[in-house]
Design a protein that fits this description.
By secondary structure, this protein is α+β, with helices and mostly antiparallel strands. It is 21% helix and 15% strand. The chain has helices at residues 24-27, 59-62, 66-70, 78-92, 128-134, 176-183; strands at residues 10-13, 34-37, 102-107, 116-121, 186-191, 200-205. A two-stranded antiparallel sheet has the order 1-2. Strands 3-4 form a two-stranded antiparallel sheet. It holds the Pfam family HATPase_c_3.
């Protein structure tokens, strides 16, 4: 890399965890992206891009939530799909010490290229690894295996509160991907972890598949 012998540097994951001799085997696994930086908290000079490859079940997009939503006893299924998206925000904001803010915006102009539904919250944010894992199909947010870093990691069901305030409002529990592709053709998630200066963006579209 052309690093001078007297120059200090660190190697980190995209979550800014420094790679050391002790944690190398734990953090450096197949397909992981690493940063070579002067310091762990160094500001990136430009955006980085990473392609996520995984083999999804064909039902991931073909039948996303269709069975559950259309079997909703004749009720309008759209509120159930929105509930799945709001459920994610309720989980993300469950440990906020201040105000929990969740906004739902219906965008009918071309600001996003086409009409869109935006759910915005002030939760703890997701790391790049959590966004990556969000693409994995049919993994319960409460039962994860090994060192799988969940988009709901750290979530604890709150003490008895109105159902509207905890993360159990999703009617079918089929997850955000099913909700997204029931409503539209693509998902874009933008997130900044609370303890990081980095902003991560993830795009999953039916066209890509």
């Amino acid at each position: 890399f052309g690093i001078a012998s007297d120059e200090n540097f660190v190697i980190t994951t995209t979550n800014r965890k420094e790679i050391t001799e002790d944690n190398f085997s734990e953090l450096v696994q197949g397909g992981v992206t690493l940063y070579l930086l002067q310091t762990v908290d160094q500001t990136l000079l430009s955006a980085t891009k990473e392609r996520i490859d995984f083999l999804p079940h064909y039902d991931t997009l073909v039948k996303s939530g269709m069975y559950e939503y259309y079997a909703s006893e004749g009720q309008n299924p759209l509120p159930f799909a929105l509930a799945e998206l709001i459920d994610n925000s309720l989980s993300a904001t469950s440990r906020n010490t201040g105000i929990r803010s969740i906004q739902i915006k219906l965008l009918f102009d071309d600001s996003q290229g086409k009409p869109a539904v935006a759910v915005i919250d002030n939760g703890r944010g997701m790391t790049s690894k959590q966004l990556n894992n969000w693409a994995v199909y049919r993994l319960s947010k409460f039962t994860r295996q090994g060192d799988f870093e969940s988009d709901h990691s750290g979530y604890v069901r709150p003490l008895p509160v109105p159902r509207s305030l905890n993360s159990d409002i999703s009617y079918f529990g089929v997850g955000g991907k099913q909700a997204v592709f029931f409503v539209g053709q693509s998902a874009r998630m933008i997130s900044k972890p609370a303890d990081s200066q980095d902003v991560h963006e993830f795009v999953l579209s039916k066209e890509d598949f």
